[in-house]
Amino acid sequence: MEQKSPVELRCALIGHPVAHSRSPLIHRLFAEQFSLPLRYDLLDVEGPAFNAAVQQFFATGGLGLNVTVPHKMAAFALADQTTARAATAGAVNTLREDQGRLVADNTDGAGLVRDLTANHGIELGASRILILGAGGAVRGCLGPILETGPALVRIANRTAARARQLATDFTRLGTVEGCGYDDLETATSPFDLVIHATSAGLTGETPKFNRRCVAASTFCYDMFYARGDTAFLRWCREAGARRLAAGWGMLVEQAAESFEFWHGRRPETGSVIARLLSA
Ligand code: NDP
After folding, report:
1. Do 192 and 63 belong to one domain?
2. Mutate to test the pocket of ligand 1, among 22, 68, 158 (most ligand atoms within 8 A of CB)
3. Contact 177, 143 (CB under 8 A)
4. Which residues of 92-113 are buried (b: 16+ CB within 10 A; e: fewer)?
5. Taking every pair of C-alpha atoms in the chain, what is the biggest distance, in angstroms?
6. Those residues with Cβ within 8 angstroms of residue 165's Cβ, 6 or more apart along the chain or in another chain
7. Tens-digit pLDDT profile for residues 30-43
8. pTM here?
9. Which of 53, 58, 105, 157 is spaced 20 to 30 A from 71 at the CA atom?
10. CATH number of the domain where residue 149 is located
């Protein structure tokens, strides 16, 4: 008797560029945990074609989209309905369709907080946090970080005005301040956690800032991930930091949130992080 093949569940990452993405591997490893017949594609789509590409994807039976640079704001504008955390961020990295309506989420912040707290054992409540960078990733993460109740979140950015504006946008959620790197010169005590979230890592660079912000007890976290130490982690090590991590865990945890948003099941992440680190 002819065996019927199971219906393929089609998901994809849409952005530009996307060729480097580890998302197909991560989602394949998640799907294997539940024996789901998943297909995960990479859709390299530039600005003007974004809306039409999303509509085409869902019109042809697609189940879920991840959205990356430069489309996270456009995805927010296109959505019919957003989760509370996507509304807070004003940016979207996960889409699905529900009875013809485009429903959107932002899983970056939850992924970061889960990696810091569950995988690295960092206590965020009452802590002093320094974030370097004020782009889309920081906007996506600020809400979930402030929800954990830190004593202070200071955002430092090359363009100080952008950091100040971001802080103003989130001030209702907690104590958050924006500044330029020069303003950190007056800092006299180290932060508990320093998160690097600029795109300088892509060219092997890192923002330089007052070394007194970092001590052996400071946890230094690079959202950017690479084989071995990133430029930011090297700089922190030289400044005296001893507790360091790159953003592999965030990548997997935000993917797990997206997977649950689409499939209603929570995948196990530890083995997937280990697989990426050993690949
Ligand atoms: P954006 O393009 O939105 O923002 C870029 C930020 O980097 C801005 O604050 C910009 O400052 C700053 N910047 C760029 N070049 C330099 C430089 N040479 N020196 C100092 N600052 C610089 O990017 P995203 O916020 O989307 O992404 C930031 C990083 O986070 C990327 O490396 C990305 O790969 C990583 N990321 C990792 C994730 C993970 O799962 N691990 C998830 C999402 C992002 P200015 O405002 O002055 O231009």
Report:
1. no
2. 158
3. no
4. bbbbbbeeeebbbbbbbbbbbb
5. 77
6. 134, 178
7. 999 999 999 999 99
8. 0.95
9. 157
10. 3.40.50.720
